[in-house]
Amino acid sequence: MNTPLHFAVMGNPIQHSYSPLLHSLFAKQAGLDINYEKMLVPLEDFESAVHTFFEQGGKGLNITIPFKLRAHELARGNLSRRAQSAGSVNTLWMEEGQLHGCNTDGIGMVNDIRRQGIALEGKKILLLGAGGAARGVILPLLESGCQQLQVVNRTAAKATELARQCQTNLPQYANIFRAGGFEHIQGQWDIVINATSSSLQHHTLPLPAGLFTQDSLAYDMVYTPDNNTPFLQQARKDGAGITSDGLGMLVYQGAESFFIWNHIRVNPVPVLETLRQQLISG
């Protein structure tokens, strides 16, 4: 009898994680026998917990708050382009005795947007926020073929510093990447992405009127059972015709981790539907 493949998600706190459900559904699709667990890791024990996991035959780890920066440091010698750009890691695995790291958040969001029939090629994209969540999606957005990407932040200096780093590390995109404060937002946008914590704090954002058209997508990285965050409510009032929370981003980033570990592409759509129903039913 084959031993199940061992995976886990490490964080602190961790009880809220849906990763075990996602990966059990992915594994069922793929015909794999896996054991995926939540691991509550004391803040001082993260590095030793990672080493122990892989020494004991673990195949792959997801990493969540507050360990993504430390995971990046652990895998510093073998980082994907996405992880280098994001400055953080949410996926770890071993290859030829070496620890490798990737960040699947950005490609997860891009794939979720495409799932909804929305092309990013040639689009004007406005990214709200310049923290870790924003950093994680910049490279996949730039690689999507968008016409323009502008990052804005309440503290403009934080956004312009992010732009400076991007122009240094990704000079091929310098002509389509802009940054500034919320006061620098002008015109209408095809896609507006909320990467701030405003919806978690039940706040709206200081956005100018007329930002959206009926063809615009408002996308919030935060998710709620009814797909109705404060940012999405604000966007609908301002005319956004298409709105989406970040539940699909969660599912699609998990699917990308699953592919990295197992080299199998799964269909995230039925998994997303299952998770949405579970959230609605409480």
UniProtKB/TrEMBL annotation:
Among the Pfam families in the record, one is Shikimate_dh_N
Q: What is its EC number?
A: 1.1.1.25
Which keywords appear in this protein's UniProt record, sorted alphabetically?
Amino-acid biosynthesis, Aromatic amino acid biosynthesis, NADP, Oxidoreductase
List of residues binding shikimate: S17, Y18, S19, T64, N90, D105, Y223, Q253
Where would I find the SDH C-terminal domain in this sequence? 246-276
Enumerate the spans annotated as Quinate/shikimate 5-dehydrogenase/glutamyl-tRNA reductase domain.
Answer: 119-199
List the molecular function annotations (GO) for this entry.
shikimate 3-dehydrogenase (NADP+) activity
Give the enzyme class. oxidoreductase
Does this UniProt record's set of keywords contain NADP? yes
Listed binding positions for NADP(+) are: G129, A130, G131, G132, A133, N153, R154, T155, A156, A157, K158, M221, G246
Instruction: Identify which residues the record assigns to the active site.
Output: K68
Q: Which SUPFAM superfamilies does this entry report, sorted A to Z?
A: Aminoacid dehydrogenase-like, N-terminal domain (SSF53223), NAD(P)-binding Rossmann-fold domains (SSF51735)
**Catalyses which reaction(s):** shikimate + NADP(+) = 3-dehydroshikimate + NADPH + H(+)
Signal sequence span is none
InterPro entries reported in the protein's UniProt record:
Aminoacid_DH-like_N_sf, NAD(P)-bd_dom_sf, SDH_C, Shikimate_DH, Shikimate_DH-bd_N, Shikimate_DH_fam, Shikm_DH/Glu-tRNA_Rdtase
Limits of the Shikimate dehydrogenase substrate binding N-terminal domain: 9-92
Pathway annotation: Metabolic intermediate biosynthesis; chorismate biosynthesis; chorismate from D-erythrose 4-phosphate and phosphoenolpyruvate: step 4/7
What the protein does comes down to: Involved in the biosynthesis of the chorismate, which leads to the biosynthesis of aromatic amino acids. Catalyzes the reversible NADPH linked reduction of 3-dehydroshikimate (DHSA) to yield shikimate (SA).
PANTHER family reported for this sequence: BIFUNCTIONAL 3-DEHYDROQUINATE DEHYDRATASE_SHIKIMATE DEHYDROGENASE, CHLOROPLASTIC, SHIKIMATE DEHYDROGENASE
Outline the subunit composition. Homodimer.
Q: Which NCBIfam families match?
A: aroE, PRK00258.1-2
Which family, according to UniProt? Belongs to the shikimate dehydrogenase family.
Q: Give the matching HAMAP family.
A: Shikimate_DH_AroE
Q: What is this protein called?
A: Shikimate dehydrogenase (NADP(+))
